[in-house]
Design a protein that fits this description.
- InterPro entries: MCP_dom_sf, MCP_transmembrane, Mito/Peroxisomal_Carrier.
- It is found in: Membrane.
- Belongs to the mitochondrial carrier (TC 2.A.29) family.
- This protein has one domain: Mitochondrial carrier fold (Alpha/alpha barrel).
- It is 73% helix and 0% strand.
- It is globular.
- The protein starts with a helix and ends in an 8-residue tail after the last helix.
Length: 273
């Protein structure tokens, strides 16, 4: 394979580095902040839990079920996250190399993020029967990382104007802001996804896309009827705390791994992020 084909091809080393770094970054960050995800899920699906403060929720879970219960379900989540983020970063950076012009645009970042996460969600939700519960909301939620990456890439390009080196703190801050925007915008659908996956909703038996859409709409309306519009955002505090910190740390690890690997391999990055 020639140098030119290697630098822009589907199987380029740079694309593989991005994929591995993205997977490692996401696994590291999720492991550190996994208890926050446990608290968020409990708030979303446990109607009897009155505590709204994340620290109180974590203390209650640890007291009632033990410290290790905060990491219950860690392995399947991490396994799925590792695979899906590998696919996501590989697809995103492959599309980025194919579509790149003199300067990348936010609209392209949004499109590439949407396509990339569609692939990664399909991979992550591979399975049969009830393993597909919540798949439709998952696929709709491809807008979450799409919006996240659009803002992340735009803010990073702005911060790096004139060849300025971006610090780890700035990467952390940019990643946090981008994720906060994306999470707030898509949180109601994430609540629906959690309820469907925990089997707390009995569908009308209709299958297919129409049935799934009806279930999603019914859940949203039921949530509003029972808890008001703010009920769609129950647990948002825990979700923001978990996802914002996780995404911010993930981007720092991702950027550091890619930079160190490229430096070690002597690869000069031709793409401006």
């Amino acid at each position: 394979m020639s140098d030119s084909s290697s630098s822009v091809g589907l199987l380029s080393y740079e694309t593989l580095v991005h994929a591995v770094a993205g997977a490692m970054g996401s696994v590291t960050a999720m492991t550190v902040f996994f208890p926050l995800d446990t608290a968020r899920i409990r708030l979303q699906v446990d109607e009897n839990r009155k505590s709204q403060s994340t620290p109180v929720i974590l203390a209650e879970i640890a007291k009632e079920e033990g410290i290790l219960s905060l990491y219950r379900g860690w392995f399947p989540v991490i396994s799925s996250l590792c695979c899906s983020n590998f696919v996501y970063f590989y697809t995103f950076n492959t599309l980025k190399r194919v579509m790149v012009s003199d300067r990348s645009k936010p609209s392209k970042d949004l499109l590439m993020g949407f396509i990339s996460d569609a692939f990664s969600q399909i991979i992550a939700n591979e399975g049969v029967g009830t393993l597909w519960n919540g798949t439709l909301p998952s696929l709709v939620l491809v807008f979450n990382p799409a919006v996240q990456f659009m803002f992340y890439e735009a803010m990073k390009r702005r911060a790096g104007r004139g060849g300025r080196k971006i610090s780890s703190f700035e990467i952390f801050l940019i990643g946090a802001i981008a994720k906060a925007i994306a999470t707030t915008a898509t949180y109601p659908l994430q609540t629906v996804q959690a309820i469907l996956r925990f089997g707390q909703y009995k569908s009308d038996g209709k299958g297919g896309l129409a049935g799934s859409l009806k279930n999603v709409v019914s859940l949203l309306m039921d949530r509003i009827k029972r808890h008001g519009p703010l009920g769609l955002y129950k647990g948002l505090e825990a979700k923001l705390l978990q996802t914002v910190l996780t995404a911010a740390l993930m981007f720092v690890v991702y950027e550091k791994i890619t930079a160190a690997t490229f430096k070690l391999m002597g690869i000069q990055k031709k793409l401006k992020h």
